[in-house]
Amino acid sequence: MRPVLLVLPLLLACHKAPTVPLAQVEPVTLSFATLNDFHGALYETTVRDNPEHAMGGLPWLVSAVDHLRAKDPDLIVLDGGDMFQGSWPVNASFGAGSVAAYNLIGADAAAVGNHEFDYGPGNTDAGLRGALEAGAKDAEFAWLAANVKNADGSNWSPEGIEPWTIIERKGVKIGILGLSTQDTPQTTLTKNVADLQFDDVVATVREVAPKIREAGADVVIAIGHLTGHCEPKGYAEPPDACMPDGEIGRLLTELPKGTLDVIVSGHAHTLLAHRWENTFVLESRAKGHLINQLNLVVGPDGVDFDASSLEDPWLLVHDAVEPGCTGAEFPLEALDVGGVSLLPSTQALDLIRNLESTAGSLCDEVGCATVPLTRDRHSESGVGDFMADAMLAAFPTADIALPNSGGLRADMPAGPLLREHIQAVMPFENRLMLMDMTGEQLLLLMRIGSSGGHGILQIAGGSYQFDPGVIEGTDLNEDGEIEKWETDRLCSVTVGGEAVDPKRTYSIVTTDFLVGGGDHLGQAFAPAKLAEEGPLLRDAMNTYLEGQSSCLGELAPLPHPEAPRIVLGPC
Questions:
Q1: Which of 340, 361, 513, 555 is deepest in the core (most CB within 10 A)?
Q2: Distance between terminal CA atoms of the chain?
């Protein structure tokens, strides 16, 4: 890996143009390419309904950015966070593989996403965030988090992570501040951020943006891993001008006009590419599938929004070419990638090989399936049933198993199942936990877990019903607002075929992510007792498959149409 990375400072130096005071030049056009939620996506993703085609893959993503940089050597590459957690080699390197990938891309700045905290100490002895802090030291880009504070209110800024930065292109000073969603403690392992506080993003920008202007910035950009969503027209077709909800919507509506010129976001894995009044808003799906492009015209008086423009999002779709576990070489011929002929980056391929040589092989066969198994965040699914069954098998004396749908990250094919398939389904280092909790606590858990605030809980060993049409709820955390996770859609819960007894104690298999407060389930788990810590969930899934005498779905379909585990409908 090192020979690849050593040449990057020299390459990046070529991207910097001599600076000229802005007041002395005519308006200039700054070219931006934006990404988010890379999630360690070294490999291409097969198009769901067209397996002969794929999207992304680091060799094509690097070449695509190089193509844009060839058109404008002053290209600015910004990222909305969550570059960690995904492919096995990146996880095995505790995120270092993603940092190396972004160094290779030539990123200028990235936000700190919730999954950047997932690896905890990693292979260091540097405390709760050793893996992230080691990655930050190696990053050749600015990693930014303005609203993340230490317990005493001071800026959390380990080496390589700062609240904001200013870079220059074509004589323009571009101020960039980073934001991390306040939901971070619920969307990573809570213990890894227990000593940090995540301040309100609007209040943070109100405080920080003027300081960036005072430091001489001609343009102010927020890159943030933030809540907020608008429904796109298609996978690569953004919505018309819309007002996202969540934290992005608040930044657009609660800040004084002109505070932010651009917002580059991540977290929702959605597509945004439009102008809202005098702010451009960009989000670029996930896993390097798509690049958003903005041409920002800046003159002595600041940004000329009417002269600025957004390009159509560039979907990096191409023929599926990765050899996977076939043993074949990666083909080096040029491909049409979203309408542009590109050669795969050999530097990216070298990086992947180096990472794989350390991480080991994922090509061992561990089981099989008779039909494809798919995911669904909002109802019972084949992948969800399989994962829940594997969790219950790891603790055979437990009553029920409850994984969260948000942890299901890939579908599973029919035929032989390899370790790489299981890695794709569960890329996170989540560990199983056996918890003892009362029926009353379990009902609260199932209420929050069926609210739809973070998808729903999958289940083995029991069943439940909820009404997706219910929108009412109660203020569980007593903060004066009823948020989506506080919606009460639950109708009934059974364990072992019997209704839950509020006074009985039940044995629950779940994950450390949920026990630690993920998906807002901390209130339900807080009074529960830890009975036993188990293996990594991914290892439990592999062990379960290896122990099967038949293929998944051969003896009974998943889900079973005549014996549903999760029922949707009015109570």
A1: 513
A2: 57
